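Summary: Need help interpreting a holo structure output

Steps to reproduce:
1. Submit the protein chain below together with the SMILES for magnesium ion.
2. Request a joint structure prediction with the ligand placed.
3. Inspect the structure token block that comes back.

Expected: a single structure record containing both the chain and the bound molecule.
Actual: see attached output.

Input attached:
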Amino acid sequence: MIETLMKINSIMYHCSIIYSSCYFLLTFLFFLIHRTYAAPSLKLTISPDNKYIDRDSEISISCELRDPADSEDKPVLYYVDPRTKKRTAVTRALLNGKGEKQDIPDLFLNNQDRERYKYEGKNRIKIIKAQLIDRAAYECECPDCAIPPTKDRKEFFVTKYVDPILSVTPNQLVEGDKATLRCQVDEFYPFTSLEILIHHHTMKDKGEMQIVNDSKNVFGHNLKWNASIPVQADWHEHTFQCIVKQGEQTRRNEKKLSVLFSPRFSVCHEKQHIDHEKNDETNTEPKIECSYTGNPKPQIEWYKANNEKLIDDYNKGGISIKEESEPFGVYKSIVKFDRQKLAEVKNGFKAVADPNEVDSNKNYFQKLINQGFLVRLNPNNLTKIITIVATEKEAANKQFGNNGHLLLARLNYLCLLGSLLLFFKIFMKYFQLLFRINPLHKNIYRSYKHQTKIFGYNPNLKNTPSNIEEIQTNLTRYNKSRCSNPSVSLLIDAYRKHGHQLAKTDPLELAVKSTIPELDDNIFPQFTINNSEDVKNLIGLTISDEEDKLPSNKQEWIQLLQKRYCDKISIELEYIESDIERLWLARRFEELRTLKLEPTLQQRIAEHMLKCEVFDQFLGAKFTTLKRYSGEGAEGMMAFFDLCFDKSAQSGVENVVVCMPHRGRNNLLVCMLNYPAAVMFRKIKGKREFPADVKSTGDVLSHLYTSTDLDYNGKNVHVSLIPNPSHLEANNPVAVGKARSKQLSLKDGHYSSNDKNDETRHGDKVLCIQVHGDASFAGQGIIPETFQLSHLPNYSVGGSIHLVTNNQIGYTTPQNLARSSRYCTDFGKIVNCPVIHVNGHRPEEIVQATQLAYEYRSLFRKDIIIDMVCYRRWGHNELDDPTFTNPSMYKKINEATMSPASHYLQSLIDSTIVKKGTMDKKIKTFRDMLEEQYAQADTYQPKAPHLERQWSGFIQAKPNCTQWNTGFNLSLLKFETLSKKQIHPTIERAHVLKRKQRIDTEIGLDWSTCEALAFGSLLLQGYNIRISGQDVGRGTFSQRHCMLVNQQNDDVYVPLNSLYEKQTGFLEVCNSILSEEAVLGFDYGFSIDNPNNLVIWEAQFGDFYNGAQIIIDTYISSGELKFLTQSGLTMLLPHGMDGAGPDHSSCHLERFLQITDSKEDGIDGDDVNMQIVNPTTPAQYFHLLRRQMIRNYRKPLIVAAPKLLLRHPECISSLKEMDEGTSFQRVLGDNQVAADKVNRVLFVSGKHYYTLCDARLKLKRQDNIAIVRLEEICPFPAADLRQEIKKYKNATQFIWCQEEHRNQGLWTFISARFENILGVKLKYAGRQVLGTPAVAINEIHLQECEQILKMAFE
Ligand SMILES: Cc1ncc(C[n+]2csc(CCOP(=O)(O)OP(=O)(O)O)c2C)c(N)n1
Ligand SMILES: [Mg+2]
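--- attached output ---
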């Protein structure tokens, strides 16, 4: 015992020694590292920062001493010849080829005229148009410095990529002959590796490789690879590939091979037997199967074992030979035996084809079975013969010996075990997938490729209808019934497919069709009902008693189908890809066609329609000259709304977001959505719709909006009718975005924190209803864009219900001129959206349509459209005369004796469902209410609805400029999250680790690192962030990488969402479709809903925002003024004149400035309509992003975002600049100059600042020129600028310098304000006017750049 204890003691003692040694070693190492960081260091920068640089690029090389605070030392830049390794210090003289010739490397000898190598300053050179010969290593060293002897070294290659040339000879490859394979690449550079493949087998080692340098061009490579290899049969149909890695690129060429080779068997067993006793397996015919390969295809013949050719008519005798050809030179022959006949042979039964040959037939079979077959391939040259023995079981036993069975059984077990293992392996591999994606539902739902939950998308969420099993069972039953009743199902299919073409959905009956060829009786000639019970499964019939009797012949079936599909309502569904959806829709539609409405619902609908009509009559009577875009002719829409809101309330939907154009909008507002009629009357009378003390311009009558609670039988639903602009359909993506934001707030579906595949589904709590006009739905491009968003993970709302108020005309344009498609709803088909066409004058059919739409959306969470065909009682507005342009249509409209509402009322009165007196009373009460409100209109005090609910606590921005402490605790900023999830090695090295290193050292933080810090800090504070736009996850310039992709399985990982366990704010990364308008509209909608979400939309390049100009004009810039809806939407617009040509250079800040309400001769405050910034440091950008959330009001922020600055070595910030107590600076002054010596002040905004600093340094003008940056342009930072200007008492010249052309950029905006507000008349230094944003000729671009600097400095 004591011994054991001593042993334990001794082990522990040794452990503690090892532990403390490691501890001391680590501490020492840490100390060393710390020392290294603390010391000044040499930095060699080569830009572009790539090991492989493209030819013709411009390369900048600089060598500098970092942190030279107390050092005057100058480092030296050396050129290292890649061949001789000779090192030469780089000087101006050297670059110009001056000095002793033998000392000048070849490279610079020819640079006498300074053509390609430019001396840019001490230790800074530039290579113009890089050539292969420029490949070199450079070193940065400081021989005379006091710093420790460190050096920085970098090497780069200049590339020239060339595709390989491949050849294979001879042309016709024959198995066994020698082939010469050759791959050649001329004049490329640099070579990294070669790979030669045939199919997946490498051939590189089988040949000879030569890499030759052309003597004239020391760096060019000529590569040759040759091989002479016997041709193999398995090369046939495979490719020969030559893959040459050149620098970072892989260039390849490939050739498909065709080989002539002798045929051979692969599957054919030499011994097979036919067991005729297995009569029980009636479905399995005994057969011999042979597969064989050959090129060209071999001929095959079957012989009897005695080499006698099989009689030609062997088919007669119950043997059939079938040949099948399969891909890749494989052919198959199957010899089948008729089991019956084999049995007869055994039993001596005499029934064969020819009664005269009974015996011989019997013998013939017996012989065949006993003797077996010969199979002969290519009989001409007899290359291959194989024997196949076809015997009875007993014969087989004899041949294999007594243990034959046992042996076979063992072999079988082994095979079984092997295949079980294989199956298990495969099963395990797909185990996860099986449980996550039910293949049945794949065609119903789209999803990301990846399988793990990320914010805003949860692959584990139940995404199938709750009764999917039932639907599936129906489908199976239905399919069976189809097989047993083909005639009936063909007829039903024809009606489901084409019935809508005959439907009487147009109340005006403008283009009535009574027949179409597809539904002609005569094309169903042999109509039989095989199984009348079974037929029931083919059609939805369960609702009505009247339909319980099934039709018993063709005519009855046709009558039934016509009633279903060709009456006042029909449906289009033939293009829907999913069988399940198509069948469910058809059957449910058929069922609902017999729906009998409850009398209470009928009364309610009649009341709504009548109120709608009365409201129009009231307006018409009180305001005779008013353009009210009445709902007259389209009152049926009230049935749709009533049912949708009611069903939402009953099914637990908390919010319904509705967007709607002008037609009938005011009717809905007053008649159903509790909008105070008095406010509307005030509006008509020219008074304000909001109180006088809020800053608002209001909007026209047809753009009013509301948000209200509706009660249906004690169940509540909140309905928001969002504001709409005149630009038709622009409000659709806005509504969808707003709905999705509500889903985020309510943790609906994909936003739910519930990880399990439970009953929760996306769209449970919020429904979006989109209402359209027929002409605008068909004409506006924003509609297909919005449909394209509808199924995508970060944009889906679980389906919208669409209603088209199809009055068959748009302004004066009739249907035939309003579109080329058959229906105005055809855009919906791009996403398989079902369309129900319904006669707008048939409220009960509208109810059927709405019921189906609601159920479909609830079950499948997809969009569905109701096309309500109606008419427009008046012209486009009530003052227009529509008969000028549409006489025949209006003849019919004017002939109508009864309005749709009165018509419906009458039918209910006739069937005693409604008493006239009761309805009159109700309508009178409504009319009295309108009168009362009319009387109050002038004195009514309207409310401002903008700072309620989630907006309470927020204010309208004030007319002064406020400063916000947007800094953040440093140690929290350093808080990091590291991915361990198989990320790309380059991303890990150049992005994750680099960032980490910068954050650790607290300096040198670049743009995207600071963006990540801003995001992280806001998330820590509980705000959500949504960044949306094309490729935003990676970033257009590969700078952001806020979304990392697992290189093994494509899973997406957002590190910022794993900050800490109880994190409440999350980042949603939304890589959008290639749309600007719908996506920006969507994101704007998202931003107006909840102020606690930072919504960022990023354009791929700044100028592309103009595709979304409608959203900017009608919502972003003016939304708050018109509707009081605040938005903190942040638009990132990459901008900068980098020589990238007209379309990628400018985000047109001048246009944004033109639509701001900044004052040209007064002081701006926070209350400008939009804030426009052009920040120059990452820290400034950090503060701007945070400022968007920290403030107590919201304003759209337009950011001229960087491109080159993302990696500019000077454009960096330190962590301190983001510490607590710091904030965004509207103006950045010059702290490098002595103010009293300055005689010229250059004002600049954006990245041009760095060009000016560089030029000032080169020209040694630091003493007398100050450079002042305008970081915020609107609101115009007058006070900050005044402070700056005051500093330069001796300055006499004030210049505005910009890189944009004179008619663009900020010039016109700022010059007027400098003069009017600051009293400074600026001189202009910049490009002259131009009709495009930039030239596309680099020479001219560079001349212009030089010219700007001349103007600024001379
Ligand atoms: C984008 C856009 N272009 C033009 C107009 C002018 N405009 C107002 S209503 C209208 C007709 C719209 O027709 P439709 O969509 O069928 O709706 P309806 O007025 O018939 O209900 C037009 C052309 C507009 N408002 N928006
Ligand atoms: Mg219309």
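--- end attachment ---

Reviewer comment: The pocket of thiamine diphosphate (ligand 1) is lined by residues 663, 726-728, 773-776, 805, 807, 809-811, 872, 876 (CB under 6 Å). The chain has 36 helices and 49 strands.
Status: needs-info
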